[in-house]
Amino acid sequence: MMSPKDYIDKNKKRFIDELIELLKMPSVSADPSFKKDVLNTADAVKDSLKNAGCDLVEICETPGYPIVYGEKIIDSKLPTVLIYGHYDVQPPDPIDLWDNPPFEPVIKTTEVHPDGAIFARGACDDKGQMYMHVKAMEYMTANNDLPCNVKFMIEGEEEVGSVSLEWFLERNQERLANDVILISDTGMISKDTPSITTGLRGLSYVEVEVTGPNRDLHSGLYGGAVANPINILSKMIADLHDENNHITIPGFYDKVEELSTKEREKMGEAPFDLEDYKSHIDIPEIHGEHGFTTNERGSIRPTLDVNGIWGGYIGEGAKTVIPSKAFAKISMRLVPNQDWREITELFKKHFENIAPSSVSVKVKPHHGGQAYVTPIDSTAYKAADLAFKETFGKPAIPQRSGGSIPIVSLFEKYMKSKTVLMGFGLNSDAIHSPNEHFGIWNYLKGIETIPYFYKHFTKLKMNS
Q1: What is the DSSP string of 322-373?
Q2: CATH number of the structural domain spanning residue 78
Q3: Structural domain of residue 248, as residue ranges?
């Protein structure tokens, strides 16, 4: 029987070429103009699962974009692993900051990826990491080395809050029954330091609108006498943090999980180079909540950030107006015990309270999700750790992530299943940004490692 590494070496070019073809498809779920492309991508994922050896594959309609479901059940007495991923991608904007068109993948070498990286929207988040599982499945079926049952659930709305996923879970609990959920939509510390994500932050995402006069006004005739919504909005946003970068919303921190000194010291053992961190994103100095390290600020502490702000005239040249309206999109990353719906309501109440009487304010909630922490003594965690030991030669480091995957808490609610997060991306891969990329080494290493998870999980589960 061929080893995973030997199979990858034999099929390396094809594996890369197939991923490149998938990345050419602009499956932007946030923009309705890409609807046809999103649906075509779902069809492509369906075909890839068939070719990988799934016995049943189908496109499952939802109120939004479809979910691609696949399965191979070899014995009902064996454990079942459910793979989750998503085929939709973030919008590529701003286009002019890409070195190459975002849906015309190119392979380039970098300091971090001397073996090359594929530059394209969705390369790391999540097409590249999702496709690792498809190719790992191909290896196991081609070599008669699948030790347990496997199911795939690949959705098309993750980048817009997985709005149809709960609807699908409610109606398909029996079909999706499993012993563990395996996800690769996270990262690892470095190429020589594997890690398993054990915590995810929750999310509350809102849009705010500040309205002043009933139309845009001449800034010479009305300036200084009428409230400018952009000025007002800017001040309101600035007031959401104090001088220590502490969020000022009353009640915001009431339920925040506080880690012990011992836990924080354990987190501090993970390798981290502050100068390297600053260099990768080209910043002169770090910034954040007083009293916490950079790693802590990005994982165990809640945050509030403006994701976009606009209003007035932004075209070429000058147009002297006081705008009628100003807008902003704001996200809050949350930690365990903070309920995203409660936080959204606290934000709404506070933002309306701090608005001066010269303007009116609307707060529109978009989507959200709960934080999640997974145990490190579970069978699934142990299996993932053993898999990393086989391919990296060292154990994985447990690590909390600053990102949010709201569906993880949904899975536990509807399927009573624990999730293991085996990511192969790096912080430098520019997900959600121009020039997103995924290292070829990381892609192939993921394909090599995943079959070992199946092997160890099945063995541990059957012996427990």
Answers
A1: E-SEEEEEEEEEE-TT--HHHHHHHHHHHHHHTS-TTSEEEEEEEEEE--EE
A2: 3.40.630.10
A3: 202-256+302-369
